[in-house]
């Protein structure tokens, strides 16, 4: 069994009533979640799993302020993980193991990003050295370097935990600095064409037997994973169907290189056999005739509860009939809009498998069929397969689902001819798997999917402008109990949302394999009694029509990219009209 000791700010073991588990689950090799029972018992976090293999714990942790923090704030309340740990009798010190993993991740990324030539005086290396020294002191304090299998229970004391929490805060601060450093370096190389030229100049080594080995050799030399796109990244926003006004049109024209047009099945065909196109048509007509901006349509097939019409549940357990309905629906939608929509997000989140229950073969069959329908009806269109919950937390609760990376690999290998993978990155939301992560975790996630050697797009990205708490409304199947989605740096406010957008957009658009970055919501929906748990505050404007700082910032990011500048060069507070 794995167990972890947790202490309070004074170094005292927390009593069981205060030792709250926040979104905790276990990870196996390759960061694949595993089914396990994680609970608090006798003042310790105890993890029981079906096998005795090494595992890592992943959970939400409040991180203290680092002495090296540039703004006096900590990284926030974010989801972190440990390294793979063998089972032992004595409990591990949680803060120490979280710091160990983050230091390992920094070392790995220094190599992956070819940044080992940073001088000792660089702020990144200074922060890393401070974290390493604090971690070393914490390890020594556990009992003189006893091996994991021989560690004594007495080693879990106040001092190593206090030093471990200090090392964790320092390591997270160093990892954020490293992520932003790499973003700045890669942005310059991407925008001036240096990466494209460097990749073209590198010859394939004679020892490379496969294309994958050749790509790994190239990536190691230029410090980049994945394909290298010659075109600059595009900025967009999902507009929504319900509202349509001159004010919204003006905002979209200012902020977006393209628009995302959601096509939820429940909106397009609320009654079986009776389609409703009017709300979608007005936005598409405006985009094509007036704004002259490209349109990304979809997701077309998405089986989350909020996207599925009630009448479809009749066929939930009749796959052959359901498959035929999916085929006809995709055919109808693509046929209607194939002259106006250039890119299709054709399926989204099929691998999560929490609402309708499909077998592995059925998930792949639906994915393949939907892509083939678009290829047949509109050969010139780009096709996106969207990966929802890209860290895969859902797999720890739902063994019928498919880990997201495995699904993406199968799509790549099973003859599904998709052009891009889309990653849906919603953070700070009171929904399972939409918890807050730090910048290094986000950058590492993008690099991992880039290893599939296919372009990526951030197909939907969001964070709220005020804290959201889970309410009494019904939860999705398999969602578990979620209370606190966390936050980055400071509690969510319009300023925090703007700051998060700036940094995440900078990290994503600096990656040469990222084709586009799309914000998830144009406007907030109005609060109504009884719907608090479904309410989101991640729009660019409020429900009353007031622009948020994030709206002005998205426009500035778009302009900065046109001028080949990184979003990190923008001022902390966006310039607003009349300011």
3D structure, described in words:
The chain is an alpha/beta fold. The protein has 2 domains: 2-190, no CATH class; 233-473 and 511-547, Alpha-Beta Barrel (TIM Barrel), CATH 3.20.20.80. The chain has helices at residues 94-112, 123-141, 158-191, 194-201, 211-222, 246-255, 265-268, 278-291, 319-337, 360-377, 404-413, 439-450, 494-510, 549-562; strands spanning 2-5, 25-27, 33-34, 36-41, 44-49, 56-63, 76-81, 92-93, 234-238, 258-261, 295-297, 301-302, 343-348, 382-387, 420-426, 456-462, 487-488, 514-519. The strands form 3 sheets. It has an 8-stranded parallel β-barrel, surrounded by 5 helices. Strands 3-2-6-7-17 form a 5-stranded antiparallel beta sheet, with helices on one face. Strand 13 (343-348), helix 10 and strand 14 form a beta-alpha-beta unit. Helix 1 packs antiparallel against helix 2, helix 1 (94-112) packs parallel to helix 3 and helix 3 (158-191) crosses helix 13. The longest helix has 34 residues, at 158-191. The radius of gyration is 24 Å and the shape is globular. The N and C termini lie far apart (59 Å).
Overall number of structural domains: 2
Q: Can you count the beta strands? A: 18
The proportion of residues in beta strands is 5-15%
Strand order of the largest sheet: 9-10-11-13-14-15-16-18
Low-confidence sequence ranges: 145-156, 471-482
Q: What would CATH call the class of the largest domain?
A: Alpha Beta
Task: Give the gist of this structure.
The protein has 579 residues and is α/β, with parallel strands linked by helices. The protein has 14 helices and 18 strands. It has helices at residues 94-112, 123-141, 158-191, 194-201, 211-222, 246-255, 265-268, 278-291, 319-337, 360-377, 404-413, 439-450, 494-510, 549-562, and strands spanning 2-5, 25-27, 33-34, 36-41, 44-49, 56-63, 76-81, 92-93, 234-238, 258-261, 295-297, 301-302, 343-348, 382-387, 420-426, 456-462, 487-488, 514-519.
